Amino acid sequence: MTHRPSSAGLDPTVADLLQRERARQYYTAKLIPSENYVSDAVLAATGSLLTNKYAEGYPYKRYYEGQQIIDPLEQLAIDRSKALFGAEHANVQPYSGSPANLAAYVALIDKKAENRRILALSLAEGGHLTHGHSVSVTSRFFEAHHYSVDRDTCLLDYDAIAARAREVRPAVLVAGATCYPRIIDFARMAAIAQEVGAALFCDIAHIAGLVVGGAHPSPLPHADVVSTTTHKTLRGPRGGLLLCQERWARAIDRAVFPGLQGGPHVHAIAALAQALHEAAQPSFAAYASAVVDNARAMADELLRQGVPVITGGTDNHLLLFDATALGCGGKTAAVAMDLAGLEGNANAIPFDTRKPMDPSGVRIGSPALTSRGLGLAESRQVARWIAEAIRKREEPAALAAIAEQVRDLMAAFPAPGFGGEVPDRALLGPSALGSGA
Ligand code: PLP
After folding, report:
1. Catalytic-residue membership of 56
2. What percent of the chain is predicted at pLDDT more than 70?
3. Alpha carbon distance 30, 35 (integer Å)
4. Positive or negative, the Cα torsion across 25, 30, 33, 39?
5. Cβ atoms of residues 180 and 129 within 8 Å
6. Where are the chain's structural domains?
7. Rounded CA gap, 233 and 81, in Å?
8. What is the CA(425)–ligand 1 centre distance, in A?
9. What is the rounded distance in angstroms from the CA atom of residue 311 to the CA atom of residue 72?
10. Quick one: which H or E segment has residue 389?
11. Distance, CA of 282 to CA of 213 (rounded, Å)
């Protein structure tokens, strides 16, 4: 296979947009903690002609013929998932993290069950939409209740979660977050679940790569069901993965297919098998610990720059800072950063009083830059540019000057997935003029 799918035959408009996005991804400091750069091999599998194939069912039990290659391929991805995470059962078919989470609830809460309560971290304090937020269908089909973080420390308070669990008596206790910068104590969450007779569901979408790389404790010995996305710190294709104890295997498989999905995305499953192979190499453990070191360096440098970091730092791949200390909201800060080539996202801080579209914070992370090989010194430099960009948010020339330095730095750390090719910098257009949506 070639490094990347051939672009021959693309219509000029699509080709132009793809070329420009390629250049943008190469020369921007990708700081969104849920993003990463896949390898050339993962990209090749994702863009392969497996996309042509229907494979409803599971390995060796299909509703379509022509599965001679697909069956062993999906089985390989299943076996590698089980081995890497130490799981009794794996389902590699979820299209992404959100359908995986819905399948987990469907499996854990029988349709005839009277207790349909789930208890999870609230979105505003770091949980995910699919953890029962009112706009998510997870709150339409299940009765959602939430716990929070401590008002003073912004840390999970396990005694308070236990008290809330005794009050709610959920069928499913959810552990996991989309914006929590500290270690989650899955063993403690399991003890709480056991005390109230709930199943424990752990959503490790963000931290899966840290878990397999040994940089975050694993939920596997403790959880009934674990879900993850495959495209964040795990550095695989866009997709979802469910892991569970054997006793939930049948319910999980039935929830995914035929419960919620039709034909699996076999090209993504092949790419996942490749990503799992990469994550099983010793170099991936080094990657996972470098991700945490780099995030800590960014947090420390932001604090030095006078920018408050929520919980005072990080133990994982992400951090959340309060932009209002620099005199603006999170959206304004994130837009200024984007104009300076620093791509993060506006995010609520715990107990935020500002609106969700323009919250107080900005969320950044280190997974993508670490994949390019940036180290502690570069991470600190990036943090200094972040503070400078926000402070100089009304000076287009200053933002353009930072963007040029960011581009120079990115050029010195070639990104995976580009087949060793360096995109033409001219495709970006002039700094600080092409962004700001
Ligand atoms: N769970 C968590 C904790 C997440 O952070 C996300 C995505 O950000 C998801 C689930 C959903 O994943 P997807 O966007 O692939 O549906």
Report:
1. yes
2. 97
3. 7
4. positive
5. no
6. 44-279, 282-428
7. 15
8. 32
9. 46
10. helix 376-391
11. 8
What's the pLDDT tens digit per position in 246-294? 999 999 999 999 999 999 999 999 999 999 999 999 999 999 999 999 9
Strand order of the β-sheet with 345-347 is 318-322, 361-365, 345-347
How far is residue 421's CA from residue 3's CA, in Å, rounded to a whole number? 10
**Amino acid at the residue 142:** F
Residue 141: CA count within 13 A, CB half-sphere: 17
CA pair distance 309, 317, nearest whole angstrom: 14
User: Ligand 1 pocket test: which of 36, 101, 128, 138 has the largest number of ligand atoms within 8 Å of its C-beta?
Assistant: 128
CB 178 less than 6 A from any atom of ligand 1: yes
Q: Which fold has domain 282-428?
A: Aspartate Aminotransferase, domain 1 (3.90.1150)
Pairing between β-strand 172-176 and β-strand 143-147 as defined by DSSP bridges = unpaired
Cβ of 228 less than 6 Å from ligand 1? no
Q: May I ask the CATH class of domain 44-279?
A: alpha beta
Report the nearest atom of ligand 1 relative to the CA of 131. 1
Structure tokens at 190: 């399991």
Q: Where are the alpha helices (DSSP H) in 35-185?
A: 40-46, 70-85, 97-108, 138-141, 158-168
